[in-house]
């Protein structure tokens, strides 16, 4: 696709949510989110892809530490047999001593 091509990918999700709190003041929100999408370039000579995506994130907090992480996966297919695959992994944490670790990896 050329640099001037516009891509759209509206996602429709079916979601649920879970939030647990323990006696140690930990919070664990973990809403999974599967959904379907259509990826349609503005150049109508290019194929339109349809597929599914799933995301998940988790967080754990207490008085000393914070951890957040998430994943995102998407797969799509076009009528011409071509396909798109994407995976993302995100992590962020702060320890009781203030050490911060963070990364965001994407592969296609």
Global geometry: elongated
Helix content: under 10%
Unreliable parts? 1-6, 13-25
The strand count comes to 9
Beta-strand percentage range: over 45%
How would you classify the helix and strand content by structural class?
A: mainly beta
Description:
The chain is an all-beta fold. It has one domain. It is built from no helices and 9 strands. It has strands at 7-8, 11-13, 19-21, 27-29, 33-41, 49-61, 66-77, 83-94, 100-107. The strands form 2 sheets. Strands 1, 2, 5, 6, 7, 8 and 9 form a 7-stranded antiparallel beta sheet that branches. A two-stranded antiparallel ribbon has the order 3-4. Mean pLDDT is 77; it is low at 1-6 and 13-25.
Write the layout of secondary structure elements.
Layout: E1 7-8, E2 11-13, E3 19-21, E4 27-29, E5 33-41, E6 49-61, E7 66-77, E8 83-94, E9 100-107
Can I get a quick summary?
It is built from no helices and nine strands. The chain is mostly beta strands.
